[in-house]
Write a structure and sequence with these properties.
Helices cover 40% and strands 9% of the residues. The chain has 209 residues and is mainly alpha-helical. The strands form two sheets. It has a three-stranded mixed sheet, with no helix packed on it. A three-stranded antiparallel sheet has the order 3-5-4. Residues 1-16 have low confidence and may be disordered. The longest helix has 26 residues, at 109-134. Helix 1 (26-32) runs parallel beside helix 5 and helix 3 packs across helix 4. The chain has eight helices and six strands, in the order E-E-H-H-E-H-H-E-E-E-H-H-H-H. 22% of the residues are buried. It has a single domain (3-126, 135-183), classed as Arc Repressor Mutant, subunit A (Orthogonal Bundle).
């Protein structure tokens, strides 16, 4: 399903990258199944530090809510306390990314992963809808550079797996720009890619006479 490489994405099936935290157990997956926790993680670059107050300002949520969810993310190893600056106690991200991969030995991880994926898709759809609502106020040249597309095709399991991997790697050339602003070309904006690859479930076998 999705990934997160401080570019934003997460999932059940994508390849695990070297700096990822792999989330496989049901309780750990459930801990990630909250849209605010995803939004909080998206605020951090690998070397940034943010207080709960700063997180609240950027998300529009209360300081108390951000503090609670940051503590939950700390419990499962996604963020940690940075060095205090006076009365400020900032947080920093621990992992560059994470991958949700249900554990076959933990039956509860599968329904947990399904719930996570449903929440993840809903959150990404909401972000896209917010962009669409204001898109007509943007420069038409930028609008013509965007797309929403849907394709149907027939593929084997291995072909589908290969397509999933290639889709995940489309943004690889841009990843170093997340943590190093000096690598961002003049005029570059934060951009988003949200994709999904799946197959229809097999049709029920017809009853034989």
């Amino acid at each position: 399903m999705p990934e997160q490489k401080r570019t934003q994405s997460r999932g059940m099936t994508r390849p695990v990258l070297p700096d990822d935290v792999v989330i496989s157990q049901a309780d750990a997956i459930k801990a990630m199944t909250h849209p605010l926790r995803l939004r909080l993680l998206a605020l951090f670059d690998s070397d940034s530090e943010l207080t709960a107050t700063q997180c609240a300002e950027r998300t529009g949520e209360s300081v108390a809510s951000c503090s609670f969810h940051l503590r939950q993310l700390e419990k499962y190893g996604h963020v940690e306390r940075a060095e205090a600056h006076g009365k400020e106690r900032p947080w920093r991200v621990v992992s560059r990314g994470y991958a949700v991969r249900p554990d076959a030995a933990d039956p509860g991880s599968w329904p947990a992963a399904k719930a996570f994926s449903s929440m993840f898709v809903a959150e990404q759809f909401a972000r896209l809808q917010r962009w669409i609502a204001d898109a007509d106020s943007d420069d038409p040249d930028w609008l013509y550079a965007t797309t929403q597309t849907q394709q149907e095709y027939w593929a084997t399991r291995d072909e589908l797996d290969d397509l999933s991997r290639r889709l995940e790697e489309l943004t690889a050339p841009f990843r170093d720009r997340i943590d190093d602003p000096g690598r961002r070309p003049a005029g570059a904006r934060r951009a988003h890619l949200f994709g999904a690859v799946w197959s229809d479930l097999p049709e029920p076998a017809e009853d034989q006479p």
